[in-house]
Design goal:
The complex is a heterodimer of chains A (about 170) and B (about 725). Chain A has about 170 residues and is an alpha+beta fold. Helices cover about 35% and strands about 15% of the residues of chain A. Chain B is of the alpha+beta class and about 725 residues long. Chain B has three domains: about 160 residues, Aldehyde oxidase/xanthine dehydrogenase, molybdopterin binding domain (Aldehyde Oxidoreductase, domain 4); about 170 residues, Alpha-Beta Complex (Aldehyde Oxidoreductase, domain 3), CATH 3.90.1170; about 200 residues, Aldehyde oxidase/xanthine dehydrogenase, molybdopterin binding domain (Aldehyde Oxidoreductase, domain 4, 2-Layer Sandwich), CATH 3.30.365. In chain B, the strands form seven sheets. Chain B has a seven-stranded mixed beta sheet with strand order 4-5-2-14-11-12-13, with helices on both faces. In chain B, strands 7, 8, 9, 16, 17 and 18 form a six-stranded mixed beta sheet that branches. A five-stranded mixed beta sheet of chain B has the order 1-27-21-22-23. Classes of the chains: A alpha+beta (about 170), B alpha+beta (about 725). The structure holds FE2/S2 (inorganic) cluster (2 copies).
């Protein structure tokens, strides 16, 4: 099935089995293995990418549903030697161990910070007016769709705080 | 060429204290970090292998009977399908850690529901998945098999039995005593990367790109399973997306990929689907544990008993070593320990992070808390009083042991002095409690080899088949080599995860860093000696720093000394007499503050602190991360993690990450960790001990003890989910 979409700024024309998920299109057909498959069921967040600026689980959506969309994967956020502030902070704070959940965490955090700056509240946000404060609790709540069995959570929270601090 | 060293006597030189480069111990970033954060580190199922096709495995739908693939012909004709394979060599279950040979093989008979009995190979992944789902598997002449460890036949484990003094008498005469039975459920390692292998043959030579923890053993296991010579087989595993024990031994997907690749004449990738990871890799055995404690009026233990029942599949010898730390953690003259293994048709039981202590110390520390409550004594004080002078069973000395300091320093850091009384503190709808527990884990040194090459340009290359499963191997091996050779960290390249490199200990049992680190240290020491020979100075008078050698008031660059040559040395460490001469273990203490909801019984961990002593810390940053990970596993054991087995057929009812509840970010507060300064000369020349598992060994008890402190409810049936807590409130 033919699908035209933009991935990390590059236009891609794909003609794949209609059952192909966005995640498998990236990993099996485009050589973009930065997005990880942890469960293939929308339960772990390892496959998180941004579609038109919003974070989604790439395993839960078929690539043929994304004709015309703009997809950003971890490869589009930075490269070794040219890390994004979040990527840099994850390295400095040891926001990972095995690294398998990490691209998903970073894509998720990138979109999450945008959600906060757009004024979206979460379950734990005290004040629904204005921007939520980047407390550990707020970050943990918003990042709980991204599992990390190595359990780098405290360091992930710290990395996000540091990176956001540099940005704002 | 080879610097071989057997650990027969304490290594008192402590050379790493004196190295001028100052890398070891420093909280340096992981060198592979930039690859991991950009998605460019290559995990098993990510190699771009030309012509690769996909295999998807198929499971047995029940736990007994002869396997019949009913519609094999029809499936073989489905679009894209290349083969449906039910080869005799497929594994019944993964190999245990360090097995070094194939586990039981044969897909003709089912032994547990979920056993992987065939692999379907197709051009495209979607085609293979559809065909695998379409394959109808029938089981003929199945019987009703035992699946419940409580009622199954048991085998006593004689080697684990201890009967010293008279525990029954001690219990009778005790001023205070506790006799309690706890249960812990099965746990799943649940690494985020599912088990996966890509097999490709070049003639009779096989390359397997897999996700494995112990490559030298895995190579022998896989070659044994396939019936080929180990020399024909190369395993590559440079990045492993978590293991936690589940990737210690060769697993069904590797054998399936190898057989399939041979059959279809193309490279084949086989990745387990997440439910298959739950159903067909390894579980930690559930346990039933009886703990008896007898104490005198001052809270000194006069006797202790620990009896456990665990389970495994028929034909597997592994029995969760629940009692491992009970033999030495506390004093008490009269001691009785026993274990029994129930035979059940559930998936294989094997190592899950800290086999033994993860649940054994946890339960024991719950019982100790019960004793402290009964005596009316501070639980920290009860532990302090019962630290044995020598190993209470063998009379051997301990090697380094900063247990007391960990208890005191942890209590101080946490603010234990502000501990509320039972059911005393309430904040709105939340009941607040503090709890603590001790940490203990045995320490082991394993045989390990590494080659270090000092190049003419004055760079070093470390090569070994050791793995980095998130543990920090890339970081620490570079730090050790950098210190010993006087090179900045970025002048050292570390190459891992390839069986063509010198065989290492592998990652498991917390022994990886110390064992493989020692092999690197030995190789570097040999290089230093050769440099010193060239300079005609005593090696001990040679100071190496930033690529310069300083001696006799002279300074010369390494590249100048090497003069176009390279020096390559192999370091080879073997465990020796020190393993038996003393009792070696790591110690620590956990402190937790919980809030339990007065209406629902839901528990939130508000704060948690750990203080640990594990010999020399090789990298303060990665060591701390290992402890954070262990403590979080503890949160899972305490509150949420439980494999649920169907009582009729023993299948895993919650075989996915939505229903097997590992802690998520919001479940984990900003944990704090202190690592005490320590050197263990008995352990190895680095004076370092294992830290990868210490953080989990008892951690859950700190939380459940805090729940008791908050609510007065003692949950003896892990995990302490809200239904169990509210039932007692
Ligand atoms: S792989 Fe998509 S959520 Fe787990
Ligand atoms: S870093 Fe290993 S799962 Fe997150």
């Amino acid at each position: 099935m033919e699908t035209n979409l933009t991935i990390n700024g590059t236009e891609q024309r794909l003609d794949l089995d209609p059952r192909t998920t966005l995640l498998d299109a990236l990993r099996h057909h485009l050589g973009l293995t930065g997005s990880k498959k942890g469960c293939d069921h929308g339960q772990c967040g390892a496959c998180t990418v941004m579609v038109n600026g919003r974070r989604i689980n790439a395993c839960l959506t078929l690539v043929c549903m994304h004709d015309g969309d703009e997809v950003t994967t971890i490869e589009g956020l930075g490269q070794p030697g040219n890390l994004s502030p979040l990527q840099e902070a994850f390295v400095n704070e040891d926001g990972f161990q095995c690294g398998y959940c990490t691209p998903g965490q970073i894509c998720s955090a990138t979109a999450m910070l945008k959600e906060i700056s757009d004024g979206w509240p979460s379950h734990v946000t005290d004040d629904l007016d204005g921007k939520a404060k980047l407390t550990a609790e707020e970050i943990s709540e918003r990042m709980s769709g991204n599992l990390c069995r190595c359990s780098a959570y405290p360091n992930i929270v710290e990395a996000i705080r540091k990176a956001a601090g540099e940005n704002t | 060429m080879t610097e071989q060293f057997k650990m027969d006597a304490p290594a008192t030189a402590r050379r790493l204290d004196d190295m001028a480069q100052g890398l070891v111990g420093a909280p340096l970033d992981r060198p592979e970090g930039p690859l991991k954060v950009t998605g460019t580190a290559t995990y098993a199922n990510e190699w771009q292998v030309r012509g690769m096709v996909h295999g998807v495995m198929v499971r047995a739908p029940d736990n007994s009977g002869r396997v019949v693939l009913a519609n094999c012909d029809a499936v073989e004709k489905m679009p894209g399908v290349l083969a449906v394979i039910q080869d005799d060599r497929l594994l019944r279950n993964p190999a245990q850690g360090t097995a070094n040979k194939a586990p039981i093989q044969g897909p003709q008979h089912a032994a547990y529901l979920g056993q992987l009995i065939a692999v379907v190979v197709a051009e495209g992944f979607e085609q293979a998945r559809h065909a695998a789902q379409s394959l109808q598997v029938q089981l003929e002449n199945g019987e009703v098999m035992p699946v419940d460890p409580a009622t199954a036949a048991v085998e006593p484990q004689e080697a684990k039995t201890l009967d010293q003094g008279d525990l029954d008498g001690a219990m009778k005469d005790a001023a205070f005593s506790v006799d309690v039975t706890y249960t812990t459920p099965s746990h799943s390692s649940s690494p985020m990367e599912p088990h996966a292998s890509i097999a490709s043959w070049q003639g009779d030579d096989l390359t397997l790109r897999g996700s494995y923890q112990m490559l030298k053993y895995n190579r022998n296991e896989l070659s044994d399973a396939l019936g080929i010579h180990p020399d024909r087989l190369r395993i590559l595993s440079p990045y492993v997306g978590g293991g936690f024990g589940s990737k210690l031994g060769i697993a069904p997907e590797a054998v399936a990929a190898a057989i399939a690749a041979k059959k279809v004449g193309r490279p084949v990738s086989v990745a387990l689907q997440r439910p298959q990871v739950y159903e067909a890799t390894m579980r930690r055995s559930e346990t039933t544990q009886r703990v008896r404690l007898a104490a005198d009026a001052e809270g000194r233990l006069t006797g202790l008993g620990h009896d456990a029942r665990v389970s495994n599949l028929p034909g597997e010898t592994f029995a969760e070593p629940v009692l491992q730390a009970s033999y030495f953690l506390y004093a008490g003259e009269n001691r009785k320990m026993s274990m029994e293994l129930a035979r059940v048709h559930r998936l294989c039981a094997g190592s899950v992070r800290a086999p033994g202590e993860a649940v054994g110390v946890t339960v024991f520390e719950g019982a100790m808390d019960e004793l402290a409550v009964q005596i009316g004594m501070d639980p920290v004080e009860l532990r302090r009083r019962n630290i044995p002078e020598k190993d209470p069973e063998s009379g051997k000395e301990f090697s380094s042991r900063r247990f007391l300091e960990a208890l005191d320093s942890g209590a101080e850091t946490f603010g234990w002095a502000n501990r509320p009384g039972v059911k005393e503190r309430r904040e709105g709808e939340w009941l607040i409690g503090y709890g603590m527990a001790s940490a203990a884990r045995v320490n082991v040194l394993m045989e390990s080899q590494a080659r270090v090459t000092l190049t003419p340009e004055g760079r070093a290359r470390v090569e070994t088949d050791m793995t980095d499963i998130g543990t920090g191997t890339y970081a620490i091996l570079g730090q050790i080599a950098g210190d010993m050779l006087g090179l900045p960290r970025d002048a050292v390249d570390v190459v891992l995860g390839d069986t063509t490199l010198p065989p290492a200990s592998g990652s498991g049992g917390s022994w990886g860093a110390a064992s493989s680190g020692t092999s690197v240290y030995l190789a570097c020491e040999a290089i230093r000696k050769q440099l010193a020979e060239r300079l005609e100075v005593d090696e001990n008078d040679l100071t190496l720093k930033d690529g310069m050698a300083t001696f006799d008031n002279q300074a010369r660059s390494l590249s100048d000394i090497l003069n176009g040559d390279q020096i390559a040395k192999l370091g080879h460490v073997l465990p020796g007499d020190t393993s038996e001469a003393v009792r070696q273990a790591t110690f620590g203490a956990y402190f937790a503050e919980v809030a339990v909801h007065a209406a629902s019984g839901e528990t939130r961990v508000r704060r948690m602190h750990g203080t640990f002593a594990a010999g020399r810390i090789l990298n303060a940053k990665t060591a701390r991360s290992q402890c954070l990970g262990g403590m979080t596993f503890g949160i899972g054991i305490a509150l949420t993690e439980e494999m649920a087995f169907d009582p009729r057929d023993g299948h895993v009812a919650n075989h996915n990450l939505a229903e097997y509840h590992i802690p998520v970010n919001a479940d984990v507060p900003q944990l704090t960790v202190d690592l005490l300064e320590e050197r263990d000369d008995w352990a190895n020349p680095l004076q370092a001990k294992g830290i990868g598992e210490l953080g989990i060994c008892g951690a859950a008890a700190a939380i459940t003890n805090a729940i008791y402190n908050a609510t007065g409810v003692r949950v003896r049936d892990y995990p302490a989910t809200l239904d169990k807590v509210i039932a007692g409130m």
